[in-house]
Cytochrome c oxidase assembly protein (Micromonospora globbae), 295 residues
Amino acid sequence: MPAVTPAAAADGSVEAGLLTILLAVAVALLAAGYGRGVHELWARRGAGEVVPVWRVAAFGGGVVVMLAADSGPLATLARGSFAGHMTQHMTLMLVAGPLLAAGAAGLPLSLACPASLRRRLARVRSAPATRRLRRPATTALLAGAVQTLVLWVWHLPAPYVAALDRPVVHVVEHVCFVAGSWLLWAPVLGAARHRLPPPVAVLLLAGTMLPASALGAALTFAPQPIYPLRALGSDPVADQQLAGLLMWAPMDVAVLVATLTVFLRWLLRLQRQQPGEVGPPEAGRPAARAEGVLR
């Protein structure tokens, strides 16, 4: 491994510091835009009418988690081992992304834009190509493909090591994780008017879980290190196996719980819509015939 000169280390520290500031400014602008849009909606239609308070809290929680994952104890843990880095990745993908998606940020962020940009966005949304992309099947395929691609590409040895060596690549990696997760969970947890039909959402979540499980299993059961030793902890094989488990178990549990929740809510809604069809098909028929005889 080539030696790192003091000048190179200093340049890397300056680059990392500038990127940290830029990232903080970008996140602050995102939060400010969302807050402005929500304030405008609440002023027009009353608090909680379009964007409930719990959605605002979810978005704020997502912003906090996103910032916490890139600083403090999690960032320190990520610098020490592959398992620590995987904890950081799963925090971004399984906590920050879903919380941001639950914030239903599309309308608030569009309202925070200047009027000219809002008109352009409206034209883009009404374009035939955009309408085709917003079809349930297309949305599900796109969201699942992006999430799977982001997860697999950034955990291949070459991109992963590049993210370790270059702060710019590291920031791009984390932005991809948050954006891919946000895109995946938005049609499941977002505003009701933009949600996928429950059967499509179930297929999306189940189909996304399988490639993630395969990658986690590959890391867990690999008999030797897949990554360069400098990217792993003091016990390379154990560190890699723990990282695989940290991807495998939390991802499967989170997606399975969400899938079952969507499926059960769908069944309950069907039951409320068709109460007469619940129960044995013959129930109530003798009483109905007896009532007819009495008449």
Notes: The radius of gyration is 24 Å. The first helix runs from residue 6 to 45. The chain is about 80% helix and 0% strand. The chain has one domain: 10-274.
